[in-house]
Amino acid sequence: MKNIKKIYWVISGIILAQTCLAAKIKIPDIKDMTARYSNQNAVFLYNNKDITFDIVNDSLKIFQHNEEAIMLLNEHSKNGAKNHIYFGKFNSVNNVNTYTYYLSKGKYKKAEATNKKTTNNIGNSVFYDDSKQIEITYPMVNKGSVMIMAYDEVIKDAHFSDLFYFQSSVPTERTVLTVKVHDNVKVEFKKFNFDRVHIACDSTHKGKYTIYTFTGYNMPAAKYGNNYTSIRHLWPHIHMLVNEVRLSDRTERYFETTDDLFTYYNGFIKTIDTTYSEEFKDKVKEITQNCISDNDKAKAILYWVQDNIKYVAFEDGYRGYIPHSSQKVFDQRYGDCKDMASIIVGMMKVAGLPCYYSWVGTRDIPYTYKELPTIAADNHMVAAYLTKDSLIILDGTMDMYEYGYVPHHIQGKEVLIRLSDKDYTIKHLPVTAFTESRIIDSLSIRINGSSVTGVAQKRWEGYNRYEIASTLDGVKNDKLNKTLNKILVLGNNTFIVNNFNIPDIKDRDNPITIDYSFNVTDYVQNLGNEIYINLNLDKEFAEYKIDTTFSCRPFANDFKFYETTISSLEIPDGFKVSYVPENVSYHNPYFSFKIEYSQNNNRITQLKTITMNLLDLEPKDFSEWDKMILELNKAYNQTVGLEKI
């Protein structure tokens, strides 16, 4: 789907009050500011936006004015003396004014920023994107300089109305959102994370307009999120929803309920051509001809799409929301998430299976449909195979995914399923239990002087299978050994894989098992008649202590899983075991580990299990997590002692 985040950053500026440009800006003393913000590189002096929802010539118009003023507090911050304005087919930008107030002999002077460059703004994962950016380079920047930017926007489609953030990654002295709404326009304000800061709210009515004002003072710097906990989870912000507009002869509906959102989405789907060529039908027949059950047919179709339709992200205005027909995707053999969903739906229907277009937001989007029934709740499309007994998500973009698994980045999210032109349902996707995804590494080790040699077998199941398959996919044979040395590394940086065997990674229905042999030099301590060896060749999570002085965001995990490592050491001839570390364990409902030792004849074995029963670890649990990592590292430092008989 369309990269909504880019659109919203376009229309959610960080801005200065309009009156500041009409008169000379009052710049605070740089000494006072550096004292107040001693650990910061910059500060927003003002951070405001003015929005007008108006009726012009019996039509809804949305105008925005954006301004910002940023003071640089040290010499290092001048390296960031650039700014960007983003726009695309849903908004236009004009009246851009940018300049710098800079210190010269103790007084401020003004220099216009004339270096403005307009380019396409294409993300690394996007083949084509209609978004553009104006890059501004500010002149004369140094400690104490103030960078000013102001510009106007026209929002061309009210379905893409605004959101506004009251915090930024640097402190903000004052931030004001002013919204002027015509009496014939119904606008709803959806507030998120307002409990984190104080925002003053006020409203007045003048003539045909209600004016809403939201003001925040002395906003502290906010931390950035992660892959699954974006700033939308953390920063206080408002979404502005146009519910409806009353015009002279009609009322236009936008977003107020999930029914409105479905109606909007349905408009993109109901006009799609649903005719299929004989070649298309024959291919479906060929794909499913050896399948016994309906599940087998659905699986075969999903795997064929994953293997034969190349994923290419494509974002161009409404094309960011409208899928191509199944037939077109089949003919061109590539498409984005919408197109992947489209060809799966088409093939499933030709095969006689109930499958539907569906919208879902990935885990970095915090909203439910009840909280925010707009396109901002979604950024992905999938196909939903829905029967009386089950819901199976079919995602063609995940080309190594095993049939039946919910893609890890949408676990726990709501999915909106289009059943027909007039009907839909919302389902809550499950979070897969940690027992469904595991890694098992079995090591048989021998001591050879100060080195160890071994044979091993490592198996990846569930989401872990997908992860390792994606890592190995496309690696050329002459690069495999180097890749495996990184994946399988044990002991220290002298680890070398000698021989290995890799199964067919495209066999999604079975775990990936790699058999290999290895050696690690300079690993064993020889002290006369004694030998010491650490059986923790794999010190997983040893470096995962959380810096609680810096992080306030949840610790994110791709999926729940557990790892088991069985390390079996052959006791050398002429030696006996003199010391075995104590068994140790740590248990928390969300994370745990257990290390146990046993001896049988001429072998001593360590069994280690680490369980990650979480997707997001909240800051309140960081101290418990760090306790576990501390205990785990203590256990990792324990060695087995051997002595001559």
Walk me through the topology.
Elements: H1 4-10, H2 19-22, H3 30-36, E1 42-55, E2 60-72, E3 82-87, E4 91-104, E5 107-112, E6 115-120, E7 126-129, E8 132-137, E9 146-155, E10 163-165, E11 172-182, E12 185-192, E13 200-206, E14 209-219, H4 231-234, E15 237-246, E16 251-253, H5 258-269, H6 278-288, H7 294-308, E17 310-311, E18 313-315, H8 326-332, E19 334-335, H9 337-350, E20 355-360, E21 380-386, E22 391-394, E23 414-418, E24 424-428, E25 438-448, E26 451-460, H10 463-472, H11 477-487, E27 496-501, E28 512-520, E29 525-527, E30 530-533, E31 555-556, E32 561-570, E33 575-579, E34 584-587, E35 591-600, E36 603-612, E37 616-617, H12 622-636, E38 640-644
Parallel strand pairs: 1-11, 7-18, 17-19, 25-32
Antiparallel strand pairs: 1-2, 2-9, 3-8, 4-5, 4-9, 6-8, 10-15, 11-14, 12-15, 13-14, 15-16, 20-21, 20-23, 21-22, 23-24, 25-26, 26-28, 27-28, 29-30, 30-38, 31-37, 32-36, 33-38, 34-35, 35-36
Helix pairs in contact: 7-9, 8-9
